[in-house]
Design goal:
Structural class: alpha/beta
Keywords: Amino-acid transport, ATP-binding, Cell membrane, Membrane, Nucleotide-binding, Transport
GO cellular component, one term: plasma membrane
Enzyme class: translocase
InterPro entries: AAA+_ATPase (IPR003593), ABC_ATPase_HisP-typ (IPR030679), ABC_transporter-like_ATP-bd (IPR003439), ABC_transporter-like_CS (IPR017871), MetN_ABC_transporter-like (IPR050086), P-loop_NTPase (IPR027417)
Pfam families: ABC_tran (PF00005)
Bound molecules: adenosine-5'-diphosphate, magnesium ion
Shape: globular
Oligomer: single chain
Length: about 250
């Protein structure tokens, strides 16, 4: 019997407690504690291999945590009885690789899951899709196929697709890392707009300007632990930990 999750939007959006994750003998997350408040933008930074993607993937159960608790809007999603699909449908995810369906138009990429998972009618799905395409500045490209769009446009479509599921929060895993530098700004602008509308966001990124301007909190990870966290402006200007200093001196 699946429990019907009692969503509590007055609780923290995401609350992670003593999260451990092993791949075989390799302990990749070594006791992570942190939370994301409703409407907060939390940027996660750190060197490659530090466990950022694994952390994000645990939050929507794309990875099974080995131990610890993750509570999303009052629902313990690490509870084995919880309906993972329901949890996931409230969390939008955007990856470095856009993962659009290449054989479907932009519009169909945005409507298919709405109809199949959200059970919306075609007309409703199209309306929601068009609203979100306009939001990412691609209202005029609904009939295009992904291959005919730039990487930046494809990523904006991927964001619009995630938004079309009406998620309570959005997770971004290095959304601009695969893009040519001149295409990064448009994607960050879309994310900045989302943040200013109050969307709860967890963003793995190397874009320190974005973290400084948009982030409410910066979390620095290294070796599977959170080394340091705080106000992005403070952490970036005056990192306390040696490992944070070393990392920032390379990326800033
Ligand atoms: P980051 O996103 O910070 O670069 P990851 O979370 O991708 O780090 O990876 C952290 C560690 O976990 C790395 O050592 C990586 O090799 C390992 N890892 C990630 N995914 C898997 C997997 N599916 N199977 C085995 N090891 C993995
Ligand atoms: Mg990663």
């Amino acid at each position: 019997m699946m429990t019907e999750p009692a969503i509590d939007r007055s609780a923290a959006a995401i609350d992670v407690q003593d999260l451990h994750k092993y791949f075989g003998d390799n302990e990749v997350l070594k006791g992570i504690d942190f939370h994301v408040d409703q409407g907060q933008v939390v940027c996660v930074v750190g060197p490659s291999g530090s466990g950022k993607s694994t952390l994000l993937r645990c939050v929507n159960r794309l990875e099974e945590p080995t131990s610890g608790r993750i509570v999303v809007e009052g629902v313990e999603i690490t509870d084995p009885d919880v309906d993972v699909d329901k949890v996931r449908s409230r969390i939008g995810m955007v990856f470095q690789q856009f993962n659009l369906f290449p054989h479907l138009t932009v519009l169909r990429n945005l409507t298919i899951a709405q109809q199949r998972v959200r059970r919306r009618s075609k007309d409703e799905a199209v309306e929601v899709a068009r609203t979100n395409l306009a939001k990412v500045g691609l209202a005029d490209r609904e009939d295009a196929y992904p291959a005919h769009l730039s990487g930046g446009q494809q990523q904006r479509v991927a964001i619009a697709r995630a938004l079309s599921m009406s998620p309570d929060m959005m997770l971004f895993d290095e959304p601009t890392s695969a893009l040519d530098p001149e295409l990064v700004g448009d994607v960050l602008d879309v994310m900045r707009d989302l943040a200013s509308e109050g969307m709860t966001m967890m963003v793995v990124t190397h874009e320190m300007g974005f973290a400084r301007e948009v982030g409410h909190k910066l979390v620095f990870m290294d070796g599977g632990v959170i080394v340091e966290e705080g106000d992005p402006r403070k952490v970036l200007a005056d990192p306390q930990h040696e490992r944070t200093q070393a990392f920032l001196s390379k990326v800033l």
